[in-house]
Design brief:
Radius of gyration of chain B: 14 Å
Order of helices and strands of chain A: EHEHEHEH
Strand order of the largest sheet of chain B: 1-2-3-5-4
CATH architecture of chain A: 2-Layer Sandwich
Shape of chain B: globular
Number of strands of chain A: 4
Helix content of chain A: 40-55%
Oligomer: heterodimer
Distance between the termini of chain B: 15 Å
Number of helices of chain B: 4
Radius of gyration of chain A: 14 Å
Number of domains of chain A: 1
Largest sheet of chain B: 5 strands, antiparallel
Distance between the termini of chain A: 21 Å
CATH superfamily of chain B: Histidine kinase-like ATPase, C-terminal domain
Strand content of chain B: 25-35%
CATH class of chain A: Alpha Beta
Number of helices of chain A: 4
CATH architecture of chain B: 2-Layer Sandwich
Order of helices and strands of chain B: EHHEEHHEE
Structural class of chain A: alpha/beta
Strand order of the largest sheet of chain A: 1-2-3-4
Chain lengths: 121, 134
């Protein structure tokens, strides 16, 4: 099993910072040969279309680099707003919290390597 | 309509979108907005502030707390002197974009608001006003 990257977004990011994160993270995935990326957004009080697009881009880029991204910890108010805004984050796997996200990554790693992982649930 | 407060903030650089978001959040909290309503108006503000910078070439955000007798609300005005919008109906469509984004800015901000109006004409700039009531 390859390395995992855990990213916790702790600040209200301006747009260039969000682009920087996208670029840095993609470079790190390649440099570390990571197989899984966990992005914790539990500190984010808002996700607009720009940040939503960034999350989608990271998921798509990591997939091309043979890694899987799971976004965890979205606040309920953020989820409600995001859907009303018109973003469903299709193509982005999500989990309730870091623990559930790790279970999800473990399960899909195990599946990918043909090994039966521990039961998830 | 009684004006309770009014703040004008500049929108020239993308870092200032964050400043507008935080100012809108603060006023929404002061008005007693629920967490979901705070999040909706802040997100709408973020989309419109970005439009002002990216499409309007910069402008201003006016944040007003208002009281119409029965209820209190937050009214936000985004104004620029940019190129304007030739076809507003087209610009309001989900997925229509000229900036390489997702094209959810205007339509999404409208869905997140209780009242929405837009005035724009080619080479005359754009003014978008949204209100969310508590």
């Amino acid at each position: 099993m390859g390395e995992w990257l855990l990213v916790s977004i702790q600040v209200d990011m301006h747009d260039r910072l969000a682009m920087q994160l996208q670029d840095d993270l993609t470079s790190r995935i390649a440099a570390t040969a990571a197989r899984g990326v966990l992005i914790d957004i539990s500190a984010l009080e808002m996700v607009d279309s720009f940040i939503g697009r960034m999350l989608g881009n990271i998921a798509a880029m990591s997939r091309v680099l043979d890694a899987e991204t799971v976004v965890v910890g979205m606040r309920p108010a953020v989820a409600i707003t995001l859907v009303e805004l018109g973003m469903s984050l299709s193509g982005v796997r999500t989990a309730l919290n870091v623990e559930k996200g790790m279970e999800l990554l473990s399960a899909s790693m195990a599946e990918a390597s043909g090994v039966n992982g521990p039961p998830v649930g | 309509m009684v004006l309770l407060s009014a703040d004008t903030l500049p929108l020239e650089r993308d870092e200032q979108i964050v400043v507008v978001r935080q100012a809108v959040r603060q006023r929404a909290i002061e008005l007693g907005f629920s967490l979901v309503d705070q999040t909706k108006i802040v997100t709408a503000a973020s989309e419109l502030a970005r439009n002002t910078i990216q499409h309007g070439g910069g402008g201003t955000a006016l944040i007003e707390a208002v009281n119409d007798g029965a209820r209190r609300g937050l009214r936000l005005t985004f104004e620029d002197q940019g190129p304007g919008i030739a076809d507003i109906d087209l610009a309001m469509k989900d997925g229509f974009t000229t900036a390489g984004g997702l094209g959810l800015g205007l339509s999404g901000a409208k869905r997140l608001s209780n009242e929405f109006s837009i005035v724009s004409a080619p080479s005359r700039g754009t003014r978008v006003v949204i209100t969310r009531w508590k």
